[in-house]
Design brief:
26% helix; D-amino Acid Aminotransferase, Chain A, domain 2; alpha+beta; 6 helices; eight-stranded mixed beta sheet
């Protein structure tokens, strides 16, 4: 971990040298938001969209952020990725308390932290576990309050799974760190409508837009988990996963129909849209 580029309050360093107060509200209350911006050969995917979602999250939490400073931080980190694939993790907290208190002071200095990580993005199908959605009720804020996700995903790990698909009252919400799409038994592409229980994923929107005016135009709405039993293909979308199919979903009868033509065609449309977005970032 010694050579990972990181930044704290505008000062570039390495991750092992970053020191954060134990009274940071990110640490004591998860009073913070974050973004993960993917880079491909050093080019960001949908930078403006990630910035817009970060802005929305800070507005919903009444965080008064200087976004010129935030953008400069992210660009400094991105420069360390050079021509590599990877991502920038960027976090904003309300600040550091003089003493732990639920009620924050009005004059706290916003706390900014991030790091850049070269990586190879996953592409092979993975397993997931179906579970109740027990998270807090404002999942449309990209908050660092992820305890519900963590408990569910580590329970899934014990079953040999790498993700979870969550539901409330028998209707799908999202995955632990992804949005969820699937083909229903009629061959329609389905995903849940956005709500306070669902994060508005950037990759989710890329896919929905790419499929408009095609035979695979996405039907958003209430998605019953009973649909999974007869689905030929369920897949996840996220900044670091792209489109990633599930090979099975524990708790259902679902099994991936490999080389399903509909998925292959959807993936091709998605990849074309991704290339256009990356070209636009040059």
């Amino acid at each position: 971990m010694t050579n990972i580029p990181a930044i704290y309050q505008g000062k570039l360093n390495t991750l092992d040298q970053i020191k954060v107060s134990p009274l940071s509200r990110a640490y004591t209350f998860s009073d913070s938001i974050y973004e993960v911006i993917p880079y491909f050969s050093g080019r960001p995917l949908c930078f403006k969209e990630h910035l817009a979602r970060m802005t929305q999250s800070t507005n919903l939490m009444s965080l008064n952020v200087n976004f010129e400073s935030a953008i400069n931080d992210i660009q400094m980190l991105a420069a360390t990725l050079s021509n590599q694939d990877g991502y920038v993790y960027y976090q904003i907290s309300r600040g550091v308390d003089p003493i732990r208190s639920h009620i924050f002071q009005d004059d706290l200095e916003i706390e900014r932290f991030g790091y850049a990580m070269p990586t190879s993005f996953a592409s092979d199908p993975i397993s997931a576990m179906l579970c109740d959605d027990e998270r807090w009720g404002k999942c449309n804020i990209k908050s660092t309050s992820l305890l519900g996700n963590i408990l569910a995903m580590n329970k899934a790990k014990l079953q040999g799974c790498q993700e979870v698909v969550m539901h409330r009252g028998g209707f799908m919400t999202e995955a632990g760190a992804s949005n969820v799409f699937y083909f229903d038994s009629n061959g329609s592409v389905r995903t849940s409508s956005l709500s306070e229980n669902i994060l508005p994923g950037i990759t989710r929107e890329i896919l929905i837009t790419a499929l408009q005016d095609t035979p695979y135009s996405v039907k958003e709405g209430s998605c019953a988990i009973s649909d999974f039993n007869n689905s030929p293909c369920i897949w996840l979308t996220s900044s670091t996963k792209g489109m990633l199919p599930l090979i099975n979903l524990n708790g259902t009868e679902y099994k991936l129909e490999e080389n399903y033509q509909g998925y292959c065609e959807v993936e091709e449309l998605f990849n074309s849209a991704m290339r256009l977005h990356l070209e636009a970032s040059e």
